Amino acid sequence: MNQFPNESHGANKDKDNNQHNQHSRQSWDASGMNSDFDSSHSMIIGYLLWLFGFTGSHRFYFGKPVTGTIWFFTLGLLGIGWLIDIFLVPSMARQADQRFEDGDINYTLAWVLLTFLGPFGAHRFYIGHYVSGAVMLIITLSTVSLGWLVLPIPFFIGIPILIGFLIYDFWTLNTQIADKHRYSL
Predict the structure, then answer these.
(1) How many Å apart are CA 54 and CA 33, to the nearest integer?
(2) Which of 42, 51, 107, 130 lies at a C-alpha separation of 20 to 30 Å from 58?
(3) Each residue of 99-122: pLDDT tens digit?
């Protein structure tokens, strides 16, 4: 037996404190519901995106690009997968919170910017990818607005480039943000 019981459990206390800190960051209440405070992905946003779930938007948001693409091309597995997903959103939110660490860049804001202002590169400016954000903005303005008078980019060239940027971002936005968080430490 150890004469100093507090010292013998010092390593265990550190381990317990680290586990406690990890669990407190995830911010799940006793019912298993995400309280949306200090979590990387909002369950509320997940359910709002689920309303358009036949396009796979909620699955992209939670970091599931393969099934998001399948949902997009099959309209949510002909609506059946979309209906089942109403019950899966909490577990997808939990998995996303465990997989993607929260940091300076807010995942939800980045996804809202991608969804609504994606062709203008707003999400890329937000996460610090200024050059590619400027490229997207220039292509959008010069392809689909009066910017073609200043910098004419043919429609058949500009639109495929934009679509390529947007597909890439829908597939990788969570990873791009996680990498920024990881390398900013």
Answers:
(1) 23
(2) 130
(3) 998 899 999 999 999 988 999 999
CB half-sphere exposure, 28, CA atoms < 13 A? 18
Joined together, the tokens standing for residue 60 give: 């992209």
CA distances to 6, 99, 168, 177 from 162, in Å: 61, 28, 10, 20
Residues 12, 30: Cα–Cα separation, whole Å: 25
pTM for this predicted structure = 0.73
Domain regions of the chain by residue span: 38-99, 103-185
Length of the chain: 185
Phi-psi region of 169 (alpha: psi -120 to 50; beta: other; left: phi over 0): alpha
Q: Residue 185 and residue 171: Cα distance in Å, rounded?
A: 24
pLDDT digits (tens, 9 = 90+) for 34-55: 444 568 999 999 999 999 777 8
Asked if 97 and 108 count as a contact pair (C-beta separation under 8 A), the reply is: no
